[in-house]
């Protein structure tokens, strides 16, 4: 899709960002979800990464195995009260890969197709997607990679920001996808470290609180290229501020058609959705 194109009604056509691949349709952050999103025609794959005990960059939203969507290596369910004890940062990747995260349907996504699936490595996702793109002879896919950190989790659920950023940059550098990658984070420290280490890579500040954007930017110390707000935070004032700062705007996570329409009319840069099929169908008929 040409993100700079206009719709039939004259609005700018937003990029379609597949959230965790296409979480509404296939198990999140798995190879089948990413491959299906690519086949649908997304512009950007949004995914989350954590780090294993042996320094591997693993695609996962939580730095532990969520009891809602994963099973123990023996196929048994995970006790929700014990899920944080299944800490990926304390496990080598060979052990992480033995858990299943594809046979338990997320309770909020009844349309999900189930199949055995594990948490893949970031480099594995990139290689699989790049091969698929070549086979389909379609436009290259871009990657929005969220680094999941918070200060309280340092050295417990993840490395410190400098090491975390270095590990991720090493993978995207080795896989030659730097020019098509944006680094996302709620954690200002991650974005500050990424700017210092790789100033040529676009950064996205994620927000979901009521703190004014100006305060976030003062704490961050610079204006990143992209703002990723929870979609309910968008007000005319925030839209005007983002436009004045010349930032790209990619709200999340938008799954209903009414909100998708509103955001298209607001001329956002992109829309992150669990159901890229819905957004693509809407854009095709717009």
From TrEMBL:
Record-linked Pfam families: GDPD
Domain GP-PDE: 14-283
Domain of life: Bacteria
Name recorded for this polypeptide: Glycerophosphodiester phosphodiesterase
Organism of provenance: Hymenobacter lucidus
């Amino acid at each position: 899709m040409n993100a700079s194109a206009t719709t039939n009604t004259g609005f700018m056509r937003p990029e379609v960002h597949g959230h965790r691949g296409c979480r509404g349709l296939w198990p999140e952050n798995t190879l089948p979800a990413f491959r299906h999103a690519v086949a649908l025609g997304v512009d950007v794959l949004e995914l989350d990464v954590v780090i294993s005990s042996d320094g591997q960059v693993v695609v996962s939203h939580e730095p532990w195995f969520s009891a809602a969507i994963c099973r123990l290596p023996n196929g048994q369910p995970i006790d929700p009260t014990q899920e944080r004890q299944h800490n990926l940062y304390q496990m080598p990747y060979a052990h992480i890969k033995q858990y299943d995260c594809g046979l338990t349907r997320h309770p909020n996504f009844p349309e999900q197709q189930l199949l055995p699936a594990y948490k893949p490595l970031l480099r594995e996702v990139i290689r699989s997607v790049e091969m698929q793109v070549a086979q389909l002879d379609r436009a290259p896919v871009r990657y929005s990679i969220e680094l999941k950190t918070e200060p309280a989790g340092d050295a417990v659920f993840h490395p410190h920001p400098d090491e975390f950023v270095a590990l991720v940059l090493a993978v995207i550098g080795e896989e030659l996808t730097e020019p098509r990658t944006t680094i996302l984070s709620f954690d200002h420290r991650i974005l500050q470290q990424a700017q210092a280490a790789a100033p040529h890579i676009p950064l996205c500040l994620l927000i979901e609180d009521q703190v004014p954007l100006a305060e976030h930017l003062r704490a961050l110390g610079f204006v990143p290229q992209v703002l990723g707000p929870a979609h309910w935070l968008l007000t005319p004032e925030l839209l005007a501020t983002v436009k004045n700062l010349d930032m790209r705007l990619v709200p999340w996570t938008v799954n209903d058609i009414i909100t998708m329409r509103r955001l298209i009319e607001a001329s956002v840069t992109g829309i992150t959705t669990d159901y890229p099929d819905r957004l693509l169908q809407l854009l095709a008929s717009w």
